[in-house]
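2024-03-11 09:14:02 INFO queue: dequeued item HTH cro/C1-type domain-containing protein, len=83
2024-03-11 09:14:02 INFO validating residues
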Amino acid sequence: MGGKEAKQPFFKLKALLVTRGIKQREVAGFLGISDASFSMKINRKGVDFSLTEIQGICDFLKISADEFFLVSGSQEWDINNIA
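2024-03-11 09:14:37 INFO prediction written
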C-alpha cells in the first residue's frame, strides 16, 4: 500500500479520556475545533493534531506531551504530518 505504514490511533489518550469521564467534544470545544475533526485526529484518520492543539490538550488534561504523543518504542516525536 504505497509503503506507508498505517498510523495507530492515540489509544493512551483515548483511554485517559474514558478513565476521567471526559468527552471528546469537551476537549474539541476547548481547542476550538469540531467534534468530527477531533475524532479524526485522535483516531489518526487524515491530518494529525497541530503542535498548538497538542499543547492545548496537555493544558486541558494536565498531562505531558512526551507521555501521550511520542512514538511508541521511540524517543522521537511523530511529526511527519503535524500541521
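2024-03-11 09:14:37 INFO annotate: The chain has a mean pLDDT of 85.
2024-03-11 09:14:38 INFO item closed
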